[in-house]
Q: What sequence folds into this?
């Protein structure tokens, strides 16, 4: 490598160190501001002209938000509608009712897997807590369960929700990585599902069976259990989850769960799967069908923005007509759902700006040159960068968008390798989830755990998901 290449790599190292420091220093600078500041400093240090640097920032942020922002907003609205209408409750209860004790962890996994398709980790967990607590309390009363029934049922939900949140579109992290790496949407979803299923099984019900007896003393606060499961209790009443956990999406639980007028389970399942089905049909049209009016229509309907819009409109019609909610109530729910993702959108935009500066300043080419000379596996490298940045910044989104920007120059775009990289980078962002992540505190406070117990559940489960996701991606890379 040339001296200039080494200089660019040194600039990147300093930039990442500065990013970590700014986010974790006493000032606690918001990740969006930190990303923009670091992007400007990186571009100037790398010798990018000032006029070009401003253009890079605008193009990077605008392009990324243009690709991801609308889809993310529609997905947040869809998740909120399903939550407020009772659709997710209906879906979960349909999977769990009349089940044997041995099957319950597996059915909770299935419920969380389906619910996790349109919902963020924190939203999905809060939606599932009434179900988990109700069933766990029933198991507790019956006796015969080894260890804590709350851990037995909570761990599978954590594993499924975190896996989908980190590894599958249309969640913001994977969608951002997919866009930055120019990966095919349908192929990425198929690969993501193939990697996700064994990952969820091993990190969820299998690990739950092992860890539950070792955490027999774990039990949520009685008032919280009663609040989530009592017939006259509302989730809004001074919930420690919404106050202490600091989860950015906890507002989704601010609805009286027991007073909801539920829509039919079949319609709830359809509302969740409409965007997924349309995206998969697009892939089928592109790979099997010739250029016809039908294939063009399926390709258009399978675009992420159009698919999520279709799912939202379907859910809007079903939940409004099925629950009798007024238009004002529905609009308030949709507005609240957008408030919860504002920070994520800004971070994604800042990450897009940073990524564009890396590419336009030549740092991306320097990284590709260094990796090629060192013969590093690009899938492992993407996973490792996302893991370290997520650990040190406390933001999985920062880990994904930064790792994507660093890895993008090494990938030609499209193909199986790009889709596997999306999965690997997303998996990396999940690992070592600890005290600087909001999700850690949500799990800790919800289940009444101390730090050690929360580490053995939330941190270990998400690290298992991270490592297993990488392992599955590497296995599939044999066919790339």
A:
């Amino acid at each position: 490598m040339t001296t200039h290449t080494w200089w660019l790599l040194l600039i990147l190292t300093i930039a990442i160190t500065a990013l970590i420091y700014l986010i974790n220093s006493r000032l606690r600078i918001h990740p969006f501001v930190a990303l923009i500041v670091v992007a400007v400093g990186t571009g100037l240090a790398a010798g990018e002209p000032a006029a070009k640097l401003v253009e890079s920032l605008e193009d990077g942020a605008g392009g990324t938000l243009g690709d991801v922002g609308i889809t993310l907003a529609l997905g947040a609205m869809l998740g909120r509608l399903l939550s407020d209408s009772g659709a997710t409750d209906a879906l979960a209860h349909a999977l769990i009712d009349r089940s044997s004790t041995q099957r319950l962890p597996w059915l909770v996994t299935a419920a969380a897997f389906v619910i996790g398709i349109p919902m963020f980790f924190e939203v999905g967990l809060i939606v599932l807590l009434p179900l988990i607590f109700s069933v766990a309390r029933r198991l507790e009363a019956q006796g015969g369960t080894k260890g804590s029934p709350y851990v037995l049922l909570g761990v599978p939900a954590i594993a499924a929700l975190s896996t989908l949140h980190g590894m599958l579109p249309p969640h913001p992290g994977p969608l951002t990585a997919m866009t930055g790496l120019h990966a095919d949407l349908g192929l990425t979803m198929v690969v993501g599902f193939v990697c996700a299923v064994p990952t969820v099984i091993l990190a969820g019900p299998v690990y739950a069976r092992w860890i539950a007896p070792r955490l027999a003393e774990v039990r949520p606060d009685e008032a919280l259990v009663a609040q989530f499961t009592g017939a006259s209790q509302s989730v809004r009443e001074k919930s420690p989850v919404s106050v202490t956990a600091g989860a950015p999406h906890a507002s989704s639980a601010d609805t009286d769960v027991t007073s909801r007028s539920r829509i039919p389970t079949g319609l709830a399942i359809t509302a969740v799967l409409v965007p997924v089905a349309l995206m998969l049909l697009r892939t089928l049209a592109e790979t099997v069908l010739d250029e016809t009016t039908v294939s063009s229509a399926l390709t258009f309907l399978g675009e992420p923005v159009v698919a999520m819009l279709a799912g939202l409109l379907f859910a809007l019609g079903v939940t409004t007509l099925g629950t009798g909610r007024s238009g004002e109530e529905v609009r308030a729910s949709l507005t609240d759902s957008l408030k919860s993702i504002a920070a994520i959108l800004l971070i994604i935009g800042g990450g897009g700006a940073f990524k564009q500066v890396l590419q336009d300043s030549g740092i991306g080419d320097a990284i590709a040159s260094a990796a090629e000379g060192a013969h590093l596996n690009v899938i492992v490298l993407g996973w490792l960068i996302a893991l370290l940045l997520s650990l040190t910044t406390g933001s999985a989104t920062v880990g994904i968008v930064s790792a994507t920007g660093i890895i993008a120059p090494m990938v030609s775009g499209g193909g199986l390798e790009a889709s596997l990289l999306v999965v690997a980078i997303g998996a990396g962002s999940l690992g070592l989830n600890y005290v600087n992540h909001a999700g850690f505190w949500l799990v800790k406070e919800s289940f009444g755990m101390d730090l050690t117990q929360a580490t053995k559940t939330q941190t270990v489960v998400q690290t298992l998901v991270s490592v297993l996701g990488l392992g599955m991606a590497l296995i599939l890379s044999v066919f790339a």
Q: What stands out?
A: The two ends are 28 Å apart (CA to CA).
